[in-house]
Each structure stands twice: as structure tokens, then as C-alpha cells.
Design a protein that fits this description.
The structure holds 2 protein chains of 2 kinds. Chain A is built from 8 helices and 16 strands. By secondary structure, chain A is of the alpha+beta class. In chain A, helix 1 packs parallel to helix 2 and helix 3 packs antiparallel against helix 4. The two termini of chain A are 40 Å apart. Chain B is an alpha/beta fold. Chain B folds into 2 domains: 130 residues, Aspartate Aminotransferase, domain 1 (Alpha-Beta Complex), CATH 3.90.1150; 241 residues, 3-Layer(aba) Sandwich (Aspartate Aminotransferase, domain 2). Chain B contains 13 helices and 12 strands. In chain B, strands 2-8-7-6-5-3-4 form a 7-stranded mixed beta sheet, sandwiched between helices. In chain B, strands 9-10-12 form a 3-stranded antiparallel beta sheet. In chain B, helix 4 links the parallel strand 3 and strand 4. The chains are: A alpha+beta, B alpha/beta. At the A-B interface, helix 2 and strand 2 of A face helix 10 of B.
Chain lengths: 343, 377
């Protein structure tokens, strides 16, 4: 229970369905100096909202300390990814390494059968096989950030709000008089807060800022920068370079501290190599697939070869190593992977 | 519900509530007034002060009413350091309550010299080590009497003597919040210049405490205002709280013998049962020099967070000794100071007993712990 409306309603729906429910909030981050976070999903006030909702539902409620797991699996990796020129998605890493790994591993200890989350996704069991599907509300669908789940996790997880639209979720909460019914959604990365991620990196890992050069696609130096961690593929603003036509970051080489900028056409990506490929139903294979590489992007047609190379039917724009790609068959999530490299 | 978290707080004794009730009703007066309504309140306040003074071997005007243990500790330490004496240093120990350690941190931030001495593997402070770090610049030394997490009893008299031998001008404060009601607390026997007690730890109301301040002790107030409590603590008196703590002090002292015998036996029974039922159990509470009502144990391989959650679901209220604001169990600074690793500290739980505890509760709780641990393992 993050203290938001979705997990509040998820708990309520499970209780209504007659299950024995207990609520937990994960304490994930206490700041580089141990201070309580002020924004995002793990602040003291959010834990307080979750606690109050649990009290209203008359279910036991606990705060679980997963700060060590979160630091190792999410924050350190976030820093390392930016330092090596990648674009990480910390919410996906949190799902992968904390929620659906370390927390799930404790279910037996707690005497619990399943983990329930407020994600907008659906899952169903057909002939002993669990399928992961997009959430009912296309605007709020979160199946992309769950695409790394496999049978092991899906069989022990439930997503009760996935069959509702966000509007319906808020309506359920409002009908029950929940304090979280009209709470705005948090868009921030919980440990970064409302500031720019660069400010966070400067605070926790100032040594990853290594000055270097900005070059054009022909390798000519056109400027200088304070560190490759300040750049993302496709970035247009803040390049510190004045040229007539719009320029975008088209390449980041952390080893030589070089940022390459080019024209829009230079952002085109024909294929990507993949890492950590997983299949929700345990197996999958080469061939045509619909691939989605942004949380709210449209899936595009592609071809998977060698279980690790994804070739797009039409070149795509601005894809960065570190991003997740999810494979779909219509509404069904087939699997997911991390993008290791782009061409 | 089996309540084994008396070190966190205790249920209020019925006679305390009964004594307090009139001051939330017809006897509502402000003691600092010239009329009859005030006089009723003033009489009750001073009677409460006298009772408490008599019980701890103090003079009435040496008793300062506060909002509880945290305020008393703040007043003792900040008050001594910020008073007009030239001495500015604070010496304290690594196992103190946050009310002391965070105050120490504040003083350090504003440039005062702060020395924190370590403890041995039983959380015990060595009086010689204290004496060795007390200098001419030391304003105050603060060492608690009974540790809230382990129940380790310090030799407060020896520490007091060591402080005075090293620098007769230095003040000595002891936080007796966990000691009062089970240890003998007589200020002349123990020798401190200041001593903290908190009502809700022995059947009194929350938000009510006392700081004993030896006559002639220079103390800058922390709360400035109307000059109540001889200027040492301003703010309109909470007469009900004062009457409450005085009644609780009387009740606790009348019950002290039972802590030494019956409650100690209940705690010991729980310890024996856990030793028998839980393989590899490590008792963090020292064998000798322990309070009558604390039991801190480590269950290797079992996270305290999980154990406490399951205990709660089986109707047993216990604690990890420390928790952050959000309610998550944190790594205990006391256990770390004793030399436990963070992982070992995360395997430690605290059971604390009090005036409502029974031997049946200890037996039942020990069985429940045994069952949960064998399932988790």
C-alpha cells in the first residue's frame, strides 16, 4: 500500500471478496543521509494515508523495511546506469528486484498466499498457466512495468484494480469515503522527488560527473559538457550548442565522456540488442512480435531473432540502452527485456 | 491481547485516572491566580510536588513538572550547557534514549563540545571511562539508569562519583525513565544533580514527567514564558497531569516489591521458556545487573520485523526496541553499541513486563514465539 488510491482500492476489493487481508507499506528510501523522503511513494505522510485506509478497512497494517534491497537493486543501479550512458527505469527495477522478488519471497513467512498490488494490469489463469494482460483503462495501463514477471511471480500475485478504469477506482474509493479517493497521482521518481534527476545524482554521486566533449555526427567537437550523466538519448534542450537546425543527443559514450548530437534523422534506430529476456508464460521465441519500449508508447511491429536481437519493421526514434521493451500479442503481455544496445 | 511492551508505555492505573478526573472538571483552575478557583488547583499542584519529592528523597522545590521524559532530558542537558556558566561540554553514552542523543547532536551542531563514550557487550558504561573524558569544560554528564532496550542497569552512584571526582563543577544527570518503579530511586543515594522520570512508564498519564533539579543548580530554561516552576519551565500548569504522576509515583512505589519478586519471576519464566523452546536463542539482556522487567532476545535467522508482525497477528504485542516515524523497525543503536552487527540487531526483539503482567501471559507468549519460530525456520 503506497498510500495512493489504487492500492487502497486493491485492498478493499480483496477484503470485499472475502479474503483475509493485511496491508504493508514498503519503506524503501531514507535519503542519502537517512532523512525521510518528501515526495513520491514512500514518504511518511503517504505511509500515514495507507495506515489510515488499513484502519478504515479494519485490516492489520505494517511498514516493512526494504531500504537495503532498494539501495542495492534500484538506487545504486540508477546511478550506475546514468554513469554508463544508459537511461534507467527505476520503477521497473523496483518491481523486478524489490516488490516481485524480495517482498514476494517473504509471503510464506507472513503466512500469506498471494501478493496484491494496485497496478493497472490484469492476470488470469487458464489451464494452470497464468496470463498477464493490459489493464482495462488504456490510459492507465501499467502492464509495461510488469513485463518482466514470469509464472513464478504471476501465480502468487493479484491485480484487482486492473479490471477497472481509473475513474471507477476513484469512484469505489469515494463511495467508501476513503481519504485517498481524490489524491493526485505521483509522477515523480520516489527517491528523486520533484527535482531534476541530475540534482539527485549531483548529491549522491558527484564523482560520476566527468567533464567531456560534445561532438557532431562527423566527430567534430562542437561543445563541452559537465558529465554524460546529464544527457539522455533524444534530448533536445540544454545541449549548450547553438546551431540553426534542431539538434538532439544521438549517442552517449561514457568511456570517452563523449556526447554525440545530430539531426532528427540520426535518432533513427533500426534494431536493438536485448538483455534479461523473460517470458510471462515461461517460453517464447523468435519471430514477429509487437514491441513497446515506452511506458505509454504504442507497440510497434518488430522481429525477434537469436532470442536477443529485435529488428523494427520501421525504424524507431530515440531509444536508449537501459530502457525496457515489452512484447505484446494484442492485450496479452508475452514478455519483456532490457535494451542493451541500439543500432 | 498479551501486552508485553510495557517499556513503550503502560496501561494507566485506575486510581490515577480517578485522581486526575476532577482537574478536567470542576477543579479547572489555573494555579497562578489570586482567587478560590486557583487556590484549589494550586493546592493540588503543590501537594503533588510534595508527594513526589518525598518519594525520591528530594525537596519539593527540586521537583519540576514537565511534559514527559523527552522534555525533562532536554531541559537537563540544554539547560545545563546553555546556562551562564563558562563550561559548555556534554559527556554522554552511546546507549542513551534519542531524547538525549538527539539533544547531543543539536548541541554539537551549534558548536558545543560533545563526547559520547561507548559501552561493553552488556551495554554497560564504565565509570572510569566517563571520568577520563570529563574535563574542566564539561558542563553536564548524562547517563541513563536502566536501558530501555536491554534493561541493563548502570551503576549510577559510581558514575556520579566519578564525574564529581573528575570535575566537581560538572553536573550529572540520569534518565531514570525505565528505572522508576522497579529500581530504588533516591536522589541522595544515587547522587545526581538532575534526574528524569516519566509518568506513563509506571501507570501514569502520557505527557507528564518530572525533572528533579538539585537545589542551587544553574539551569537555563528551554521553554521561556510566564515563569512557572520557578522560571525553569514556563507554561500554564497541567494540574491533572501533575496529580496523575504523583498518584502513579505513590502506586508504583507501593508496588515496587512486587516488581522485585513477581514481575521479575514472570520475566525470568519467559526467558527460561524461550531458552528451552527456541534453539540458538541469544539473550541480549545481561545476566547480572538487569532490570526486573526487560527481556531482549535474538532469534538467529529470523527477522524481527517478521516475528513482530506474526506475534501481533497472534495477539502478542512486543517491540524491536526502536522504530522510525513511519513505523518500520530500525536497527537499534543500543544493540549496535553493544557490538551486534546490523543483521543481528534485526533479529532482536524486546518483551517488557509491567504492573498488569501475569505468569500465564509469559507462558502463552513463549509458546506462541516458539511455534512461530519453528514455522519460520
Amino acid at each position: 500500500m503506497s498510500g495512493g488510491v489504487d492500492s487502497s482500492v486493491a485492498a478493499a476489493l480483496m477484503k470485499d471478496a472475502g479474503h483475509d487481508v493485511m496491508g504493508v507499506t514498503l519503506k524503501l528510501w531514507a535519503g542519502p543521509h537517512g532523512e525521510a523522503p518528501t515526495a513520491g511513494c514512500c514518504t511518511v505522510s503517504d505511509a500515514e494515508d495507507a495506515r489510515r485506509v488499513a484502519a478504515q478497512l479494519d485490516i492489520p497494517y505494517y511498514v516493512l523495511d526494504h531500504t537495503d534491497d532498494f539501495k542495492d537493486g534500484v538506487v545504486d543501479r540508477f546511478v550506475r546506469d546514468y554513469a554508463t550512458g544508459r537511461t534507467p527505469n527505476p520503477c521497473i527495477e523496483c518491481n523486478r528486484t524489490v516488490k516481485f522478488d524480495r517482498l514476494l519471497a517473504r509471503l510464506d513467512d507472513f503466512g500469506c498466499d498471494v501478493l496484491v498490488t494496485g497496478h493497472h494490469a490484469r492476470s488470469r489463469e487458464v489451464d494452470g498457466v497464468w496470463h498477464l494482460l493490459r489493464g482495462e483503462d488504456p490510459d492507465k495501463d501499467q502492464s509495461y512495468v510488469l513485463s518482466m514477471l514470469t509464472q513464478r511471480e504471476l501465480s502468487r500475485t493479484r491485480f484487482p484494480v486492473g479490471r477497472l478504469t481509473k475513474r471507477q477506482v476513484r469512484q469505489v474509493a469515494a463511495d467508501m469515503g476513503m481519504r485517498t479517493a481524490h489524491k493526485p497521482e505521483s509522477m515523480d521518481i520516489c527517491f528523486v522527488g520533484s527535482r531534476d534527476y541530475r540534482g539527485f545524482l549531483q548529491e549522491v554521486a558527484p564523482d560520476v560527473f566527468e567533464p567531456g566533449t560534445v561532438v557532431d555526427t562527423d566527430g567534430r567537437q562542437v561543445g563541452a559538457h559537465e558529465g554524460v550523466v546529464g544527457f539522455t538519448i533524444g534530448q533536445r534542450r540544454g545541449l549548450g550548442v547553438a546551431v540553426g537546425e534542431p539538434r538532439f543527443v544521438t549517442g552517449i559514450d561514457a568511456g570517452s565522456a563523449t556526447v554525440t548530437i545530430g539531426r532528427r534523422r540520426d535518432l533513427k534506430i533500426r534494431e536493438v540488442t536485448l538483455d534479461q529476456v523473460t517470458w510471462t508464460r515461461g517460453s517464447g521465441g523468435d519471430g514477429p512480435v509487437m514491441a513497446q519500449y515506452r511506458a505509454h508508447g504504442e507497440p510497434v511491429a518488430a522481429w525477434l531473432t537469436d532470442s536477443s536481437i529485435l529488428v523494427f519493421d520501421d525504424p524507431q526514434e530515440a531509444i536508449a540502452p537501459g530502457q525496457t521493451v515489452a512484447f505484446y500479442d494484442e492485450e496479452v503481455v508475452l514478455g519483456g527485456a532490457l535494451i542493451a544496445d541500439t543500432r | 491481547m498479551i501486552y508485553l511492551d510495557h517499556a513503550a508505555t503502560t496501561p494507566m492505573r485506575p486510581e490515577v485516572w480517578e485522581a486526575m478526573a476532577p482537574f478536567a472538571g470542576e477543579a479547572f483552575g489555573n494555579p497562578s491566580g489570586v482567587h478560590g478557583v486557583s487556590r484549589v488547583a494550586k493546592n493540588a499542584l503543590e501537594e503533588a510536588r510534595e508527594k513526589i519529592a518525598a518519594m525520591i528523597g528530594a525537596q519539593p522545590l527540586e521537583v519540576v513538572f514537565t511534559s514527559g521524559g523527552t522534555e525533562s532530558d532536554n531541559l537537563a542537558i540544554k539547560g545545563a550547557v546553555l546556562s551562564s556558566t563558562p563550561r559548555q561540554g556534554l559527556v554522554t553514552s552511546a546507549i542513551e534514549h534519542e531524547a538525549v542523543l538527539e539533544t547531543a547532536d543539536f548541541l554539537k551542531r551549534i558548536g558545543m563540545p560533545v563526547t559520547i563514550v561507548g559501552v561493553d557487550s552488556e551495554a554497560r558504561v564504565d565509570p572510569d571511562e566517563i571520568a577520563a573524558v570529563v574535563t574542566d569544560d564539561t558542563a553536564v554528564v548524562s547517563v541513563m539508569m536502566v536501558n530501555n532496550e536491554t534493561g541493563t542497569v548502570q551503576d549510577v552512584r559510581a558514575i556520579s562519583e566519578a564525574v564529581k571526582a573528575a570535575n566537581p563543577e560538572a553536573l550529572f544527570h540520569t534518565d531514570a525513565v525505565q528505572a522508576f518503579g522497579c529500581e530504588s530511586v533516591d536522589v541522595d543515594e544515587l547522587g545526581p544533580d538532575m534526574l528524569t522520570i516519566s509518568a506513563h512508564k509506571f501507570g501514569g498519564p502520557k505527557g507528564s514527567g518530572v525533572l528533579y533539579v538539585r537545589e542551587g543548580t544553574a539551569l537555563e530554561p528551554v521553554i521561556h514564558g510566564g515563569g512557572q516552576e520557578l522560571g525553569r519551565r514556563s507554561g500554564t500548569h497541567d494540574v491533572a497531569s501533575a496529580v496523575g504522576i504523583a498518584t502513579a509515583v505513590e502506586a508504583a512505589l507501593a508496588d515496587r516489591h512486587r516488581f522485585e519478586t513477581e514481575i521479575r519471576a514472570i520475566r525470568d519464566r519467559m526467558e527460561q521458556r524461550l531458552r528451552a523452546d527456541v534453539d540458538d536463542l541469544v539473550v541480549n539482556t545481561p545476566r547480572e545487573g538487569r532490570s526486573s522487567h526487560h527481556l531482549n532476545v535474538r532469534v538467529p535467522g529470523v527477522r524481527n520485523e517478521t516475528l513482530l508482525m506474526l506475534l501481533d497477528q497472534h495477539g502478542v504485542a512486543a517491540s524491536a526496541g526502536s522504530a522510525c516515524q513511519s513505523g518500520a523497525a530500525t536497527v537499534s543503536h543500543v544493540l549496535e553499541a553493544m557490538g551486534l552487527t546490523p543483521d543481528q540487531a534485526r533479529e532482536s526483539v524486546r518483551f517488557t513486563f509491567g504492573w498488569t503482567s501475569t505468569i500465564d501471559e509469559a507462558d502463552q507468549a513463549a509458546s506462541i514465539v516458539g511455534d512461530i519460530v519453528s514455522r519460520l525456520r
